[in-house]
Amino acid sequence: MTKESTSRTRKPKRGQTREALMTAALELVVKKAPFSALSLREVTKKAGVVPTAFYRHFSDMSAMGLTLLDESFRTLRQMMRQVRQQELPNEHMLRSSMETYFTYVRNNRAHFLFVSKELASGTPTMRNAIRREIRMFTNELAMDMARFPFLDHVNAEDLQMMAGLVVNNVTALTQEMLELEETDETGQQEVLITAEKQLRLIYFGVGMWRSDKNRS
């Protein structure tokens, strides 16, 4: 067998091991403890691989945590960007955005529990990385808001503040969603309705705001 064919047969196995390690870590986070409290041996045992296999994919547990974090946010950013770029009436865009977001939360509960626990009690490296991701969300939202004609009276600084209010509210409601039982459809629907109402209030309030008249 040539080197080329050997490498081709091994790649899927390495990929499966990497995925198994990350899945094992998330399962332990859901059932047991924050990621930062897990040991390498716990994760490899759960994944069914020897500890040395871990180092073929990650330099240490911190590197794995950052990879999980990137995976948790990357797809979500792409999805929300697509929703915001749709040419829909404002009220429909709000509803569509929240439905898309909270559906993603429900379908990726383990990832969001991982992020929530790390933000509360993770290492400084993980907490700072999560805050950077949240700032990226806020910055992208502020740039999208600048496209809306009904917000053309609001300057960039105030749009950034408004985007921060939106992200902070949704982050708090995400925590509420995670605290509900997965089968509590009524509670989940209430969170979705609350999120949409809060966003409407924020957008209504900013409609009355005048950046040039509200400087301290």
TrEMBL record:
* Domain HTH tetR-type positions: 15-76
What are the UniProt keywords, alphabetically? DNA-binding, Transcription, Transcription regulation
Cited InterPro entries = DesT_TetR_C (IPR054129), Homeodomain-like_sf (IPR009057), HTH_TetR (IPR001647), HTH_transcr_repressor_FabR (IPR050692)
Give the DNA-binding residue ranges. 39-58
This entry's Gene Ontology molecular function terms read: DNA binding
A Pfam family assignment: TetR_N
Q: What is this protein called?
A: Transcriptional regulator, TetR family
Which organism does this sequence originate in?
Answer: Alcanivorax borkumensis (strain ATCC 700651 / DSM 11573 / NCIMB 13689 / SK2)
